[in-house]
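User: Quick sanity check before I run a bigger batch. Here is a single chain. Can you write out its predicted 3D structure?
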Amino acid sequence: MRNPLTSLFRVSPFENTFKHSVRVAQCGPLFVTAVQSYFGGDRDTFEIRKDEIRDLEAEADRIKRNIRAHLPASLLMPVDKSVFFAFLREADKVVDCIKNSLYWMSYYHLVLPEYIQKDYITLAKEVGDYLGLLPEMVLRAHSYFNSRAEKDRQLVKDIIREIRWREKESDDLEKTILIRLCADESVDPRTFFLTCKLVETTGDIADHLENSSDMMRAMIAR
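Assistant: Done. Predicted structure follows.
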C-alpha cells in the first residue's frame, strides 16, 4: 500500500525548493569570478557577473514566493512547516549576502595589500565553491522523505557535516583576514571600514548555508 505521506510529499513544495537551491548554487562560481575580476582590474567582467547574480537572486525570490503562495495550511508535509520555512529563509539569505558582498566592493575601489587581497580571494573561493552542496542536500533529503531509508538519511547527514566543516574553515579564514587588516597601518580608514564589512558579509554566506543545514538536520531528525 502506498504511504499517504509519501503521496502528499510528491505534491509538496520540495521540488521547487530544489529549483531554488540550484539558483543559489549557481551564484557561487559567478561570485568567485566577480571577485577575481575585481582585484584583477577587469571592472567590466565584475559588473557583468554582478548583474547575473542580481538576476539569479530575483529568480530565487520568485521561486520562494511561489512556494509560499502555493502552500495551503491544509497540506500535510513530512516535516514541520515552520522548520521548512526557516530552511528556505536561510538558503535565500545566502544569495542576499553574495549580492551584498559585491555591492560593498562596488561602492569604492578597494586597494588592499597583496597578501590581504589574496586571502580574501581564497575566502571567496571557499564559500563559493561549496554552495553546490545545497542542492545536493535538498535532493538527498527528497529521496529520504520518499524512502525513509536510513542509508538515505545518512547521506543527508554526511552533507550536513561537510557544510559544517567548510563553514569552520571559512570562519577561521575570515578571522585571519580581519586580524591582518587591523594590524596593517598602511590601510586607510575608508578602505579599512569597507573591507571589514565586505569580509563579514562574505563570511555570512557560509553562516547562512550552515544555518540552512541545521534546519535540514532538524527536518530529518527522528
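The chain has one domain: 4-220.

User: Great, the batch can go ahead then.
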